[in-house]
Specification:
single chain, 95 residues, mainly alpha, 2 domains, two-stranded parallel ribbon
């Protein structure tokens, strides 16, 4: 019955539950607040991981100087096939 009362207080009256556990000050007091701190830290970490973008950068070595120096190409806007056939970064320009 005592466990059901504590569960009821935890779900429906959290303030009274905390006061009840605080006045007892036994091992359950430290367990409850420890779990609450861990839960809050997990929620903060989850929010932190949602906000920060994640990316993977892949660096491949090249033996040709033109691939190192010129890693992008400009192409005419009217040419629609160039971006599909090019392996470089393609930037359209208008004349």
């Amino acid at each position: 019955m005592k466990v059901l009362n504590l569960a009821y207080l935890f779900i429906f009256n959290i303030k009274k539950f905390h006061l009840h556990v605080y006045t007892k000050k036994n091992y359950i007091f430290y367990m409850v607040f420890g779990f609450e701190i861990v839960f809050v830290l997990l929620v903060l970490y989850f929010l932190y991981s949602l906000i920060l973008p994640g990316t993977t950068i892949e660096i491949n070595p090249s033996n040709q100087a033109e691939n190192i120096i010129y890693n992008f190409r400009y192409y005419n806007t009217t040419d629609t096939t160039y971006p599909e056939n090019s392996r470089n970064l393609s930037i359209p320009f208008q004349t």
